[in-house]
Design brief:
heterodimer, A: 49 residues, mainly alpha, 1 helix, elongated, B: 317 residues, alpha/beta, 6-stranded mixed β-sheet, 3-stranded antiparallel β-sheet, 10 helices, 31% helix, globular
């Protein structure tokens, strides 16, 4: 629908895979930080009636 | 098409009289031209109300969900696929249903007809064979049905019902060769992300959040829809573009691997949004990734509710 590549991640992590969860969370945070602030699907307080 | 009407009325009358069904679900004339209303009939005397023509485009499966009685129902290709989906999803049992199958030749896009008569008021539409006549104050125009098919009907590859107890007519021919069903989806896929965002933003900017698309869809039968929940409130109830977009893409995702492209959502949209762009992208993916088209087989489980140890995706094994 037009969200830039890298901002949306999908992964399959079992509840038993704590280390994998940590790894994936770190990686997602890093990649998304690299992209900078989101431009879409955000509501700013002032615009909320 | 008119001859189907006579057969449907006769069969509904018999089924109700014989006590084979408790209720018969079909269409009757609407209050305005080119609109047919779903109707539930439990009295054989009222079978006269039933009709069938190229305006019976709402999806009757909406009225079958979680019924506990025996139901007679008319079903063309797409509606019958929704019945299969309903049975697969335990919303009704096959034994409860008596399906009067209709080989379908497609539905007329009422908006296209209005455009063709330059938005003048239409007071009557009559079908004769492959054509139809549109009458209004001071004008009579004749059109060919094939030029006015609903978008989903024009590319339909399942005109005939996939399950039925009887057919009201000879099965119609399905298109031969490859039909380019997803041509416009491919166009959107080819856009750069930013352009695609703009495309969808413009498309949904007119949305009133009336939820007619959701209400017309037989797939949307959750006791409480996520948009109506308030604790927690998953999505804002305003027409803020973010809320509207969230509603539309979540609605589409809830239809993934389930949509039969019956077109009811677009037909009922009061502002003419082409929200099938979303569901058809998912239909395309379901076909490409899982060779899946919804509602073709009672035995086959939908791709999103099966797990196979030999899944081709490594991450899930």
């Amino acid at each position: 629908m037009g969200i830039e590549p890298g901002r949306l991640h999908f992964s399959w992590i079992s509840s038993a895979e704590a280390t994998k969860f940590v790894e994936v969370a770190r990686e997602v945070a890093e990649v998304v930080k690299g992209l900078g602030p989101a431009g879409h699907l955000i509501k700013r307080r002032a615009e909320v009636a | 098409m008119g001859e189907y009407g006579e057969k449907i009325r006769a069969r509904a009358r018999e089924l109700l009289q014989e006590g084979r069904v408790d209720v018969f679900i079909g269409y009757r004339e609407g209050s305005v031209p080119m609109m047919r209303q779903p109707v539930l009939i439990d009295d054989a005397l009222r079978a006269e109300e039933l009709c069938w023509d190229s305006h019976c485009a709402l999806n009757l499966c909406n009225y079958v969900t979680k019924r506990t009685d025996r139901v007679g129902i008319v079903a063309n290709g797409c509606n019958s696929r929704n019945l299969v989906t309903h049975i697969t999803e335990n919303q009704i049992t096959r034994e409860q249903l008596y399906i009067v199958g209709i080989p379908c030749r497609g539905m007329i896009d009422h908006r296209a007809v209005l455009r063709a008569v330059k938005q003048r008021e239409i007071v009557g539409v009559e079908e004769e064979g492959e054509g139809f006549t549109v009458r209004g104050r001071g004008f009579v125009e004749r059109f060919q049905k094939k030029d006015f098919l609903q978008n989903n009907c024009a590319t339909c590859t399942h005109h005939n019902p996939v399950i039925y107890d009887e057919l009201v007519g000879e099965a119609v021919g399905e298109p031969e060769g490859v039909v380019d069903v997803f041509g416009d989806v491919a166009k959107v896929e080819a856009m750069e992300p930013e352009k695609r965002w703009g495309f969808f933003s413009r498309m949904f900017s007119r949305c009133l959040r009336c939820y007619a698309c959701r209400n017309a869809c037989p797939l949307c039968y959750c006791p409480t829809c996520f948009v109506d929940e308030s604790r927690p409130q998953w999505v804002g109830k305003s027409t803020d573009p973010t809320d509207t977009m969230t509603f539309h893409f979540l609605r589409a995702y809830h239809c993934a691997g389930r949509c039969t492209d019956c077109g009811a959502c677009e037909r009922v949209c009061p502002v003419g949004i082409k929200m099938r762009q979303f569901t058809r992208k998912l239909n395309k993916d379901a076909l490409r990734l899982f060779s899946w088209e919804a509602g073709l087989d009672l035995e086959e489980r939908p791709p999103l509710d099966v797990y196979r140890p030999d899944d081709y995706n490594e991450f899930i094994r």
